[in-house]
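My main concern about presentation is that the manuscript never shows what a single data entry looks like. In essence, backbone conformation is discretised, so a fold becomes a row of integers matching the chain in length. An entry of this sort, consisting of the sequence and the corresponding backbone structure tokens, reads as follows:
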Amino acid sequence: MSIWLLRHGETLLNAAGRLQGWSDAPLTARGHAQARERGLALADAGVRFDAAFSADGIRHRETARGVLDAMDDRMPAHPDPRWRELCFGAWEGARGRRFGRLLREHGDLLPALESLSAAEVGAEHPDVVVSRSLAALTDAAEASDDGADVLVVTSGLTIMLLLNAIGADLSHLNAGPGHLSISTVRPAGTGSWVVERAVVDAL
């Protein structure tokens, strides 16, 4: 079995160039189309899900529903706050270029996020995101009774931090995950994971 980690579709805040984190916004028309296109592609490839989860934001729930509807699957996607994006604290809703400057200053994602968590009240440390998403990943793997695949819709930084923590090679990335990008992992014994795909656009 594989767990399919999909980033949500484009939102109103994405389109406005704003940081989201725990802030939320609905999908744009383009975001809804992205979810439908991904669901149709998954169905055409013969993918079937035994269980589905999403973060608890409207963007995640709308994306999961759009993917499943396009697959002609009425199964609910269970919302789980452990799949939320990293919280930016006082930077929630700030213009994305502000975070871009922080990235350039620190040269890499992890030190930039660690710096943000130390400086801003309420900003999550990346280790906290890894801890909660790893726990959610373990529970998602146990949700499939017959070993069939599981869908999870979450956010870009959460995906990158989780994949990095379980040993994925992310050197091909020069930006964050695209909307509806795909990563798949499978359990390989207690506490171990095999990364099958790491942030790719095509099946």
